[in-house]
Amino acid sequence: MILRLTIGAVVLATLTHAQFDASQCGQTKGCLFAPPGCTPSTDCQIYFSYQVQNGQTMLIEISGRPANPQAGYVAVGFSKDSSMGDDSVTACVTNQGQTSAILGYTAGKSLQIKQSSVQTAVNTANQNGYVDCVVRRQLGNTGDKEIFDLNGTYIILLATGPVGADGAPGYHGETKWVMPRTDVASYGTDAQGNVIMRDSNGQTGGSKHSTNDKLKIAHVFIFTGILFARHFRGHWPDTTFLGVKMWFNFHRTLNMIGVGMTIAAFVLIFVANDWRWTGPKAFATKEENQAWSSIHSILGLLACVVAWAQPLNAVFRCDHDSKARPIFNMIHRFFGFSAWLMAVAATMIAVVHFNGMFSNRDAALGLYIAFVAVAGLTLIVLEVIWIRNWFAARRGVSNEMEMVRVGAGTGGVVLREDVQKIHRLQMAILLLYLVCAIGLAVAICVLIGLKPGDLA
Ligand SMILES: *[C@@H]1O[C@H](CO)[C@@H](O)[C@H](O)[C@H]1NC(C)=O
What we know:
It comes from Mesorhabditis spiculigera. Keywords: Electron transport, Membrane, Signal, Transmembrane, Transmembrane helix, Transport. Pfam families: Cytochrom_B561, DOMON. Helices cover 42% and strands 23% of the residues. By secondary structure, it is of the alpha+beta class. The protein has a six-stranded antiparallel sheet with strand order 7-6-5-4-10-11, with no helix packed on it. The protein is elongated and about 85 Å long. 2-acetamido-2-deoxy-beta-D-glucopyranose binds at residues 55, 139-140, 151, 185.
């Protein structure tokens, strides 16, 4: 009963959201709605449209449902990157029965209100839980670096939040979305009154893509490197390269490549964010620090730091025959595995909680779960084989290596038939893992890449 009443009320509220006309979207004006994938006049929280008029001005409509429609705002930010800070903002603010459109600029995380005739309000409304503003913005050079000329392409940020005691827009929390890079001058009419026809999908590759690609591929390298140390020690027993056994060469080389890639990815992340740390800060609010992005950042950093420390602690490992060597082995394994787990958790947070990162979030989530499952399964299967082997060895049936005289004088280490079989099985599992993991990683990267315009 209550549910039905609520549904009825919601339907009524949406039906009476008469201000925003979505029927012209993609015809005479361009529109973006948040959350991505929502259906206008059913489950969208923010409506934004843009239209150039006679090549001179841009008509902007920003509308939506703040959690508190009596003291809340919806806002659109025009950004050169996908994070908040250095954005030109148009906000529709309702407070104490008054609705007004404001022009602003975000310096860091705080919004500065700009007084300028570049933007004029055409209409403001507050009805049925919706706030709605239509404004006109002058195109061309505004003469103020903090008021962007909207005649071009920007990453669109949409947000809704409460109004503070001072009447100014407050922190939006999780209700903010990074929309695709959009040519906001691609709809409307030009100076001669002709309809503007322009390809509005200015897709660009970006550093964030390659960051993700690198981290994902680093993941495969490191995981494979770990597998070599754990399960491939007995392979190629008498082949050495640079004075060490082959498994160690694989282990060291793969993990070094992986660590190198995480370092490169980290540098790219910081460059992409203008060297700003997006993780927890001592002076940030509780909401900000608890935000998923903070948890993601701190987990990611921890995972990388632990991964980077691994080769360092390996340098100081004690001698092969030392009594303390098993302790080193345990610590090294523990940190290796925990770094991997933290990286998995950090990535999972990104996939589940970061809006607008993938062209299809559900597909990305499915692929990533498959990616982790393949790795987990590989680990378990190899571990089972290892345990079986270990029991066999304890029963004294198997001595892994046998000296066999092959011809005269070529006394090499030859592996017994059944041991060779196990090695072939392990190799097959490893190859299967690599094929699956690389395939899935590529698929996820394609999903990130398909997302129209991430970072330039
Ligand atoms: C907008 O940009 C186009 C080129 O992209 C240019 O031809 C036009 O003059 C610009 N309009 C204004 C008002 O600056």
